[in-house]
């Protein structure tokens, strides 16, 4: 088992650093759609608009439910937000450092800064100095916890996570891989943070996860079993979500405003401002404030179907904005009276 883990090594770390995947299948379908006859393309666009409207209507109910219990679905039992376990995995993948809490000789918990890389199950492999106090504490009692929260906006709004379990030493092969990954991910460390040949690498075997949701959380914390945490997947948009939100807020201001108004059931002219907070494979979080000075409200806007990369997310947002625009400025076609048919001169 150790060798199998060693072979996969720090796969989760490396996957978080590469650019988001592009879907060849989606690209092929898009190209085929572009060559389709005009009536078929128009029918397809209309079908998409209807799907977006249906999703928006279902999400209006879901957003009300989310305010009560911290979760939402599309009315058909399918979730429109990532699960707590998925978000926990995403947060831990994004950050790569946290506060390690160990028990000192005096029995008092001690919180210290540590950096980590991840194994393929999302469990942190900690870099510990051989002479550090927390290393000595763990040698007496391997039980510990690791607090993780993104430090930058907007990722900081997602959640905060405490991984609870016990550390275990890793084999030489995995330790070598973890050291190489750590030196790349955390390059430039100085002083106590500079890599040393005597550094030790321990894996935190997660027993459970104490999860406090932000954007998709209610008023209560969740305890996620270790098996559920390890089985969950990170969100495929995690490395581009902040960039995409910044782009929408800077370059597509009106689109963000219209999508928010559509979801909240508010008039466009009655809304002072809106911003996109985060995007994931199932939808987006937005916040909007009314012109009358009332409190800003956060709203979840689901995608019609899950997306797998930034390109698909941009396409879904464009369709959302188009549907919102059509809803807020409905087009009323004027009836056209056809010209009279020419008369046959022979009948005159």
UniProtKB/TrEMBL annotation:
One matching Pfam family is DUF2470
Q: Where is the composition biased (Low complexity)?
A: 330-348
Per the database record, which ranges form the CREG-like beta-barrel domain? 83-229
Assigned GO CC terms: cytoplasm
The ranges of region (Disordered) come to 65-85, 328-348
Domain DUF2470 residues, every copy:
242-320
State the InterPro entries in the record: CREG_beta-barrel, DUF2470, Haem_oxidase_HugZ-like_sf, Split_barrel_FMN-bd
Q: What is this protein called?
A: Glutamyl-tRNA reductase-binding chloroplastic
Instruction: State the species of origin.
Output: Micractinium conductrix
Q: What is the lineage of its organism?
A: Eukaryota, Viridiplantae, Chlorophyta, core chlorophytes, Trebouxiophyceae
């Amino acid at each position: 088992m150790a060798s199998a883990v060693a072979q996969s090594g720090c796969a989760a770390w490396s996957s978080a650093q590469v650019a988001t995947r592009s879907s060849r299948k989606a690209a092929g379908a898009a190209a085929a759609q572009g060559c389709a006859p005009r009536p078929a393309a128009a029918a397809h666009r209309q079908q998409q608009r209807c799907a977006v409207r249906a999703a928006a209507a279902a999400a209006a109910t879901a957003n009300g439910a989310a305010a009560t219990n911290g979760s939402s679905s599309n009315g058909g039992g399918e979730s429109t937000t990532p699960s707590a376990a998925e978000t926990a995995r995403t947060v831990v993948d994004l950050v790569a450092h946290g506060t390690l809490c160990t028990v000192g000789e005096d029995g008092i918990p001690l919180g210290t800064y540590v950096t980590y890389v991840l194994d393929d199950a999302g469990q942190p492999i900690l870099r510990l100095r051989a002479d550090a106090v927390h290393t000595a504490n763990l040698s007496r009692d391997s039980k510990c916890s690791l607090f993780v929260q993104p430090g930058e906006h907007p990722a900081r709004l997602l959640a905060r996570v405490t991984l609870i379990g016990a550390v275990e030493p890793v084999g030489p092969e995995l330790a070598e891989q973890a050291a190489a990954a750590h030196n790349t991910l955390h390059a430039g460390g100085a002083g106590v943070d500079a890599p040393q040949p005597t550094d030790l690498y321990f894996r935190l075997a997660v027993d459970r996860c104490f999860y406090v949701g932000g954007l998709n959380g209610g008023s209560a914390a969740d305890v996620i079993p270790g098996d559920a945490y390890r089985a969950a997947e990170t969100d495929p948009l995690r490395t581009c979500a902040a960039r995409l939100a910044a782009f929408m807020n800077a370059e597509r201001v009106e689109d963000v405003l219209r999508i928010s108004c559509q979801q909240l059931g508010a008039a466009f002219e009655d809304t002072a401002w809106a911003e996109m907070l985060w995007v994931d494979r199932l939808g987006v979080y937005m916040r909007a404030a009314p012109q009358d000075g009332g409190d800003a409200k956060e709203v979840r806007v689901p995608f019609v179907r899950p997306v797998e990369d930034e390109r698909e997310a941009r396409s879904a947002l464009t369709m959302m904005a188009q549907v919102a625009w059509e809803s807020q400025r409905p087009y009323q076609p004027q009836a056209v009276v056809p010209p009279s048919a020419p008369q046959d001169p022979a009948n005159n």
